[in-house]
Amino acid sequence: MKVFFWNSRGAGGPSFMAAMKDFRKKHNSEIMVIAETRTSEANAIRQLRKLCLHDRCICNHPEGRAGDIWLCWTDKVPISEPLFISKQDIHVLVSEPNPDQWLLSGVYASPQYLRRILLWEEFQNITGEWSGPWMAVGDLNSITTSSEKCGGSRTFPSLASNEFKETIAQCNFLDLGFSGSNFTWTNSQFGGGYIAERLDRALANGD
């Protein structure tokens, strides 16, 4: 089963939807987690209808918008009603062809440190309640090593990175790795002001 994450970085317009449609066709993705759409509910439904996904999509609704997270799937994927939705994540159960179920968490972690702490606490609570396979995918807005950042302050390790790594350890998560650029976000500046970080990732437990 293929899970696809796309961070639109606020570019939720026609060009983004066209690119997503092409990617879905090329890679035959069955589950899609999309972050930072920053679009209205009416526009979200209109765009999803173009992908024939408007009736198989869960959005969170922070602060009156259609949602910083969309979790969409094809009609071939058995997905439960959301177990929990917050401003930073959506949790669902996915049923594979075999009897086992696994937990999928679509994440857009807050850029604000104190709000991210609430997310890490939530993840640690899930660990005590869920013992099966678990994947968390999205924009975690955190780094684990100095190699995941280029430019800006080089102070490392930071309190934020240490708490993120502690959460990964307590949840028994493994980083599923990546291909392509080492960095998934930049501040789009040049010269001495340039900063790039690896903020988007997929984590899964050993199951």
From TrEMBL:
Protein name: Endonuclease/exonuclease/phosphatase domain-containing protein
The organism's taxonomic lineage, starting at the top: Eukaryota, Viridiplantae, Streptophyta, Embryophyta, Tracheophyta
SUPFAM superfamilies: DNase I-like
Any one Pfam family match given in the protein's UniProt record, by short name: Exo_endo_phos
Native source species: Dipteronia dyeriana
Domain of life, per lineage: Eukaryota
Residue span, Endonuclease/exonuclease/phosphatase domain: 6-206
One Gene Ontology molecular-function label: catalytic activity
